[in-house]
Amino acid sequence: MAYRHVVGPRSWVFADLPVLMAKATPIRSGDRLAGIAAESAEESMAARWCLAEVPLAEILARPLIPYEADDVTRLILDTHDARAFAEIAHLTVGDFREFLLTAAPETLARIAPGVTPEMAAAVSKIMRNQDLILVARKARVVTRFRNTIGLPGTLAVRLQPNHPTDDPAGITAAILDGLSYGCGDAVIGINPASDSLHALGTLLHLLDDVIRRLEIPTQGCVLTHITTTIEAMNRGWPVDLPFQSIAGTQAANASFGVTLPILREAHEAARALKRGSVGDNVLYFETGQGSALSADAHHGIDQQTLEARAYAVARAYKPFLVNTVVGFIGPEYLYDGKEIIRAGLEDHFCGKLMGVPLGVDVCYTNHAEADQDDMDTLLTLLGAAGCTYIIGVPGADDVMLNYQSTSFHDALYIREVLGLRRAPEFEAWLARIGLTDGNGALLPGDGGRRLLKAAPELAA
């Protein structure tokens, strides 16, 4: 079915809904690389005007990837909540934008199960940055394991103590460094240099030891392949949150070596362990615009819409954490700071609108046309937008993954500027061991020494 829109003397024609949505996407290098981007600003604007007139019900009725060809499409349609959708079923994409701008937080929570990723992506394409921030700030998604994240007025931090050789002493030092800055309430999450089962066991026991000795109300995660983590659970090793990178198409997920039944198996196994103390949200997913294109599994669909489809995969398993590593894949997909900033706001908006606890790795690679000032801008905008959590890396420079992210100091900055608190259980722990005052502010002195005093065995 072709879509048409007249602008001045010219009639623009878009062959079908995937073409229309791709042309309506703000320009980015990944869609250019795929050959699906608008060829001019005029074509892009005509596509946005045209997309605004498309009914949400039509988007639901016209899957971008056929139902019989893709299990992510089947998941989206088979789990769609028709009752939640009924409240917005009469709206066009343009009407939906107006609805969202004035909706109360309770309304957004109520309709979330009825919002498909294609609807979320479509409306984001016709929104300004300030629209994305305003709506995402109202969409609160709260999850629980050993603490509670996503509450209004809070911003959690994943403490990321990666080491190029998985050295336990180096990782422990980075963990203590991050804790001394009040980071780690989202998760203490290690990207291992090795994917071996032996390395996984060492790191899982290290995390469990630190968390138990210091009695930290947080959770650990080693970001290895989920099948390796399933084996670790079968062996009785201390797994809090199984992790997996996911994408928005069946073929892209296959390129990661994962299927929906494998995710379900990990979800059920982790919940059966009952390691959470305040809740049972147990999975951790990461995503990123461009992954489906990298795997030649994009079906001619723009990368931002496919990213939103990954959130539908995540949503099905009620995860504790999801984050988009927004600038990690490289300039082939998000060329410069402007594209990274826009993509970060889109991803955060779409995830929160769909009811996913979305965090953002505010990051870039060294060959992108971006710098730390761009990341400061995106970090500040996401803080205003109510982002669930960000990443904390020593010095903002991940020496194992070789990319630039945000530091423990950056977390202090955004919390102070916007008055954001930590997860309440974690903040109470920091005060109890003498690292912060009653308002969550770091106390003067050597925080590392206080941590070692709390658990002197870690100094060994």
From TrEMBL:
It comes from the Bacteria. Its EC number is 4.3.1.7. Pathway: Amine and polyamine degradation; ethanolamine degradation. One of its GO terms (cellular component) is ethanolamine ammonia-lyase complex. Its cofactor is adenosylcob(III)alamin. It is found in: Bacterial microcompartment. It is an enzyme of class 4 (lyase). Its main location: other. Adenosylcob(III)alamin binds at residues 192, 244, 294, 400. GO terms for biological process: amino acid metabolic process; ethanolamine catabolic process. Keywords: Bacterial microcompartment, Cobalamin, Cobalt, Lyase. Binds between the large and small subunits. InterPro entries: Aldolase_TIM, EutB, EutB_dom_2_sf, EutB_N_sf. HAMAP family: EutB. Catalyzes the deamination of various vicinal amino-alcohols to oxo compounds. Allows this organism to utilize ethanolamine as the sole source of nitrogen and carbon in the presence of vitamin B12. PANTHER family: ETHANOLAMINE AMMONIA-LYASE HEAVY CHAIN (PTHR39329), ETHANOLAMINE AMMONIA-LYASE LARGE SUBUNIT (PTHR39329:SF1). The basic unit is a heterodimer which dimerizes to form tetramers. The heterotetramers trimerize; 6 large subunits form a core ring with 6 small subunits projecting outwards. Belongs to the EutB family. This is Ethanolamine ammonia-lyase large subunit. The lineage of its organism: Bacteria, Pseudomonadati, Pseudomonadota, Alphaproteobacteria, Hyphomicrobiales.
